[in-house]
Amino acid sequence: MAEAHQAVAFQFTVTPDGIDLRMSHEALRQIYLSGLYSWKKKFIRFKNGIITGVYPASPSSWLIVVVGVMSTMYAKIDPSLGLIAKINRTLDITGYMSNQTQNIVSGVLFGTGLWVALIFSMRYTLKMLLSYHGWMFAEHGKLSTGTKIWMTLVKLFSGRKPMLYSFQTSLPRLPVPSVKNTVNRYLESVHPLMNEEQFKRMEALGKDFATNLGPKLQWYLKLKSWWAANYVSDWWEEYIYLRGRGPIMVNSNYFAMDFLYFTPTSVQAARAGNAIHAILLYRRKLDRQQIQPLMIYNAIPMCSSQYERMFNTSRIPGIETDTIQHIKDSKHIVVYHKGCFYKVWLYYDGRLLKPREIEQQMQWILDDKSKPQPGEEKLAALTAGDRVPWAKARQTYFARGKNKQSLDAIEKAAFFVTLDDTAQGYREEDPVTTMETYAKSLLHGKCYDRWFDKSFTLIVFKNGKMGLNTEHSWADAPIVGHLWENVMFSDCLELGYTEDGHCKGESSSGILMPSRLQWEILEECQEVIERSLAVARPLADDVDFHSFPFDTFGKGLMKKAKTSPDAFVQLALQLAHYRDMGKFCLTYEASMTRLFREGRTETVRSCTTQSCKFVKAMDDPSETLEKKIALFKAAATHHQLLYRLAMTGNGIDRHLFCLYVVSKYLAVESPFLKEVLSEPWRLSTSQTPQQHIDLNKNPGMESSGGGFGPVADDGYGVSYIIVGDNLINFHVSSKYSCPETNSHRFGKNIKRALCDIRDMFGIGKNSTK
Known about the structure:
The chain folds into four domains: about 5-45, no CATH class; about 55-160, no CATH class; about 245-545, Chloramphenicol Acetyltransferase (2-Layer Sandwich), CATH 3.30.559; about 550-650 and about 680-690 and about 700-765, Chloramphenicol acetyltransferase-like domain (Chloramphenicol Acetyltransferase, 2-Layer Sandwich). It is about 45% helix and about 15% strand. By secondary structure, it is an alpha+beta fold. The strands form six sheets. Strands 15-9-8-12-13-14-3-20 form an eight-stranded mixed beta sheet, with helices on both faces. Strands 16-22-21-19-17-18 form a six-stranded mixed beta sheet.
């Protein structure tokens, strides 16, 4: 093959006249350009490391400080209060410098020391300022004078033009709440879910824990919080994600969808070409720290640490625990299509491949008629089943030879791509079935056509629709959401397509075409693959999914009720669940703790005493309208308070989880913690971050959001995205094997609950309010 010939830098043959050496100038040129690219990338990282390391100052400020010190010295003014003279005397001992040189060196050394001291002072001051969270509890849109002054000081000490990781060393550590406060808030949260006898028993356990064992465990937790950047995140990653021995497909991985109504092209290879190029542009910005850190009110920074492992990352199975493998750079991706794995190089002539060139590569794969090698087609099922068999198979069958090289190619790829042979997406003639199959395809597919261990898999369907399947341990949904919004924006509004649906630009000759990964999969290994598939398929088939757009009203109407849209939806979910199941349950809503260094998530316990009173009143014909509205507002206000407490490090569940981990390390049993950590979340909810595409300028580009599988066997998982002023997309999951749950029934109850709350306020379409 021509591409294989070009990849060889030189060839030689032995002849009677000696050795005939033939050099390939093109190959040598590619080697040179590859090295140049590598050194350029190292230099950019080195430069960005310096800029980030001295933030909130800048490297140029060193020169300003040193020149200022030297100027005062020549003006016969000593800005150092005698320190420069002491440095001068120390240098004089060497005897190698003239007086003038000593003065210059002394001034430079003092100026540098002063500059470093100013950096640490500014950084510490900024950290102290960011430790204040009173602004979070102010009424929305009404900042006090004190908060405005505080925000001005934050902006003053934040420096100019921050890079992605500029604020990392200035973010405060996650505080450890007091044991008594956490226990009291926990008891308050479970009170509406227990009868009096159950509550009194739990109250006794809680008070005993807070008085006796709790303070001892808390001491170790405090010690960790002083030593580690975050007292929760490493344990959360290890014990919640990496130590799980069951399948990560459905149970842990989540998905992101394409635009709801709009597909920019129906050409599969072209959509893949633009999407892959847009992802690589994002990666380049990430490497160069050109992505701005997320800021609240354009002033308060959030932690960016989760971005570090977005690319070139894979989860590696282990017997007792998995690990996350992350490499600094990767110049290829791996593509799966119809049972075959292909390695695709991303660079040519020292530059990224252009969208049209990537489309050319994808079309080559789609046109390839070669058949899968024995065991290749369903190989990825190993990543969908239980972790221990996969770990053992990896050690036994993939530790050497072709299999090791090919597995390395997958695990060290920038990301994984599946060119799916099915057509998916919303269709107006059958919205229910099409959205259900689209969601299930992204969540689990055929159980062997996504590499579930990769940080994310890009899935491009036959009709041009696409989506992501994301491994959860390395980062949470808002991080992936930021990538995905940027990709969709770049795909449609920056890169674009020709009139016939192809990527813009010209195809190029000389680019290396994709190469098949080679495997030698023994029959014993194929049996392991089939067993993993036998575990994964029932799990996938059991998922009852219902994805639907709710376009009766949206955020615009909710604001007329003068309440948070998230609180509005959460209370509607409580009402819907009570009507669906006839009872209340422990409810999980994901919140973030990224106001702190290396912060991830915290739980908001959305089922509260206040929400239960409101829900019961809604279906009580004897309750007055005024009473219902008052109960709704009280429940919404309390929900917002819980959300703010969670965001500011005063949640319940992460603290109790870490206390439980400490108790296990100390080999002490806590009946209270054991019971708390064993309680099932029968309603798990999450709001997908809102999209940033301007829908007024780009109508039709509404995001579908994303979703996840059910957390409990007898419960519901609900993801939703509030899109613009008139649309909410919901993704509801449960299990067919549970006779009590039904995702479609729950979806109907959600719609009914939202409309009932709207009608309660009298702010519907026919209202004059």
